C-alpha cells in the first residue's frame, strides 16, 4: 500500500502541510509506504505552457517536470490532494498540478483507455474558514464536488473511490489555545483516516466526510 499526499500552501508550517503529514503519519503507522509532495516547497511550476499544449495535441513529449511528478504518483494506491479553499476553489498551484500532471496521456486517454489513476482511491482534503454545512447550503460544495470528484477523478480518471474531507471552521493565523485544540482535533481525525486507509478497511467513499 502506497499513499501520496500533495499539499499546496506557501507557508512552511501551515496547517495544510500539517494535515497532509497527519494523514501520512497515520498511514505509516498502519504499515503503508508514504510520500509528501509539497508543491510550494518544491517550486512546482503550475503554468500550462506550450510544452504542455504540444503534448496534449500529440505533437511532442510530456514535459520533463510533469513526467517526474507522474512517476511519484503513478503507483499510489491512494492519492490525497490537500489544499486550502481560496475564493471557493483551489489554489492556483494545485489547479496547475491537475492541469499539468493529471493530464491526457497519463491520468486518462482520449480513446477511453484507463489511465494511471484508474481503480485507485482519491482523497480531497479541503481546509476552510467556514463550516462544512455552509459550503453545502451555499452550493459551493456541490460545485467543487462536480468539478473535482465526479468529473475529474471519477469520470475522466476512472478512480474507484473519491472522498471529500472538510477540515473546517479554521481561523487562519490564530494561535490561541482554543484554535490550536480545534486544529489538533482535525489532525487526530486525519491520522485515524490514514491508518484506516493503510489497513484497507475503509467503507465505500461518499461525497463528504468530517
Word description of this protein:
Residues 1-187 form the Flavodoxin-like fold domain. GO terms for molecular function: NAD(P)H dehydrogenase (quinone) activity. This is NAD(P)H-dependent oxidoreductase. Keywords: Oxidoreductase. Pfam families: Flavodoxin_2 (PF02525). The protein is of the alpha/beta class and 210 residues long. It has one domain (2-199): 3-Layer(aba) Sandwich (Rossmann fold), CATH 3.40.50.360. 42% of the residues lie in helices and 17% in strands. The chain is built from 7 helices and 6 strands. It has helices spanning 15-29, 50-56, 64-73, 92-100, 132-138, 140-156, 177-199; strands at 2-7, 33-38, 78-84, 121-127, 161-167, 208-209. A 6-stranded parallel sheet has the order 2-1-3-4-5-6, with helices on both faces. The radius of gyration is 17 Å and the shape is globular. The two termini are 24 Å apart. The mean pLDDT is 93.
**CATH class (first level) name:** Alpha Beta
CATH architectural category: 3-Layer(aba) Sandwich
The secondary-structure class comes to: alpha/beta
Number of helices: 7
Could you name the CATH homologous superfamily? Flavodoxin domain
Query: What is the rounded Rg?
Result: 17 Å
**Secondary-structure element order, N to C:** EHEHHEHEHHEHE
Note the beta-strand portion. Answer: 15-25%
Mean pLDDT: 93
Tally the structural domains. 1
Q: Unreliable stretches, pLDDT < 50, 5 or more residues?
A: none
DSSP helix fraction: 40-55%
CATH topology value:
Rossmann fold
User: What order do the strands of the largest sheet run in, or round the barrel if closed?
Assistant: 2-1-3-4-5-6
Shape: globular
How many angstroms separate the termini? 24 Å
Largest sheet composition? 6 strands, parallel
SS elements, strand count:
6
Protein name: NAD(P)H-dependent oxidoreductase
Family: Belongs to the NAD(P)H dehydrogenase (quinone) family.
GO molecular function, one term: NAD(P)H dehydrogenase (quinone) activity
Pfam family, one: Flavodoxin_2
Amino acid at each position: 500500500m502506497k499513499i501520496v499526499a500533495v499539499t499546496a500552501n506557501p507557508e512552511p508550517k501551515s496547517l495544510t502541510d500539517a494535515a497532509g503529514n497527519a494523514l501520512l503519519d497515520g498511514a505509516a503507522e498502519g504499515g503503508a509506504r508514504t510520500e509528501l509532495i509539497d508543491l510550494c516547497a518544491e517550486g512546482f511550476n503550475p503554468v500550462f505552457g506550450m510544452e504542455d499544449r504540444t503534448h496534449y495535441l500529440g505533437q511532442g513529449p510530456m514535459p520533463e517536470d510533469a513526467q517526474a511528478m507522474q512517476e511519484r504518483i503513478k503507483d499510489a494506491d491512494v492519492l490525497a490532494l490537500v489544499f486550502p479553499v481560496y475564493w471557493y476553489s483551489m489554489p492556483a498551484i494545485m489547479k496547475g498540478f491537475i492541469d499539468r500532471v493529471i493530464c491526457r496521456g497519463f491520468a486518462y486517454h482520449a480513446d477511453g483507455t484507463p489511465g494511471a489513476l484508474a481503480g485507485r482511491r482519491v482523497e480531497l482534503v479541503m481546509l476552510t474558514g467556514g463550516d462544512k454545512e455552509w459550503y453545502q447550503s451555499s452550493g459551493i460544495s456541490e460545485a467543487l464536488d462536480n468539478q473535482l470528484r465526479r468529473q475529474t477523478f471519477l469520470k475522466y480518471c476512472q478512480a474507484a473511490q473519491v472522498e471529500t474531507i472538510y477540515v473546517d471552521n479554521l481561523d487562519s493565523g490564530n494561535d490561541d489555545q482554543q484554535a490550536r485544540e480545534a486544529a489538533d482535533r482535525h489532525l487526530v481525525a486525519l491520522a485515524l483516516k490514514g491508518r484506516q486507509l493503510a489497513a484497507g478497511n475503509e467503507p465505500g467513499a461518499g461525497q463528504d466526510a468530517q
